[in-house]
Amino acid sequence: ENYNTHKDTAGELTINNAYNRTDITLGASFKLANGAVLKTDYQILKNAITNSKSDRQINFGVGVWF
Fold first, then answer.
1. CA triple 47-43-27, angle to 5 deg
2. Radius of gyration of the chain (CA)
3. Residue 13, exposed/middle/buried by CB under 10 A (0-12, 13-18, 19+)?
4. 15 forms bridges with which residues in the sheet?
């Protein structure tokens, strides 16, 4: 996913590349039973600033359909 929430600015504001972001998400799920799943994903979060450190995070969740 690539999005820039600071692409257009009003007046004389300088565009801030910290808001020009790229998010990459990889995930998997494990079906426990009908209507129940365990989920996990790994995210790499970057912005367009030169030499900026990319953030990484792991998310876990449970999905239930009822």
1. 150
2. 17
3. exposed
4. none
pTM equals 0.68
> Are 12 and 32 within 8 A, CB to CB?
no
pLDDT per residue as tens digits for the range 4-52:
988 777 776 777 888 899 999 999 999 999 999 999 999 999 998 888 8
Pairing, β 36-47 against β 20-33: antiparallel
13: which DSSP letter? P
Residue 51 vs residue 58, higher pLDDT: 58
Alpha carbon separation from 24 to 2, 12, 49, 64 (Å, rounded): 9, 32, 17, 25
- Residue matched to tokens 């600015």: 9
